[in-house]
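Researcher: If convenient, please comment on what follows.
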Amino acid sequence: MVRCRTAISETLRHRSSFHPRQRRGNLEDLAVGLAQTPKSTDRWLRDRTTLMLPRAFCELLLTDDVVVDDTEAHHLLHVLRLKSGDPLQLFNGCGMEVDAVVTRSSRREVFCTVQARRQTSPMSHAHVTVIAAPPKADRLKWMVEKLTEIGVARLILLQTDRTEVISSESRQDKLRSYVIAACKQCRRNELLQLSPLQKLTSVLDDITATRLAGELWIAHPTPSITPLPYHAEMPITSRLLLIGPEGGFTEIELQAAVNVGARMISWPHTILRIETAAIVFATQLLTN
């Protein structure tokens, strides 16, 4: 495969010095050579092409003819400027991905024909739910995007005694748009699940009643707490991560979490902001 790619690169690099007739002959030879490349090379070229295809979110992918509408259609038509006959990928946020071709479009809709359909495998790492007090302004957007990219399964916004919430920043439709954009960029096919603001007492009640199951960790900056070892041997399971607001949990809230079995996790020598702690500790729980 390496020899084939090198030969192609050399041919393309030198073709400008050929006589037009000779150049046409060499390009014809190149086309024949590509047709005769090994299957492994074909697969490599096909995979590279697939990774470069534009992506859009579409919930209904079970039929051969699908319609992309609203903001997704606007992005395809006016940002990517797709036309009839252009290929693209669509995903439904539940693990299904399809290869499709644009057949026609209107002002607000893009009509596509599905050519191949596949259900992607669930992620092999731990199922991590982050339960975090929402940071302010663009920091919440950044946190949602990065949690989506690294593979966190669910985000629950947390109301504590010290949580300051601006309702317009934590709107579910706005947060969902951030998740979709991140999935398109990182090529994830399952949407990060979003849950609206919940009180800490309600979350702990759900954990006690096993309505919210998983190994519970709570981020708390105390020097006496041993950080989670990077190579800790923990079986793949469901894990829950509590992140407090600016100023941290109150002593009463911290004790309530410990009473339901929370284990403490910290970062040595520094205190992390909400969004930083969410990414750092979620990554550890996902990969260890």
Summary: The longest strand covers residues 109-119. The longest helix spans residues 20-35. Residues 1-28, 43-48 have pLDDT under 50 and may be disordered.
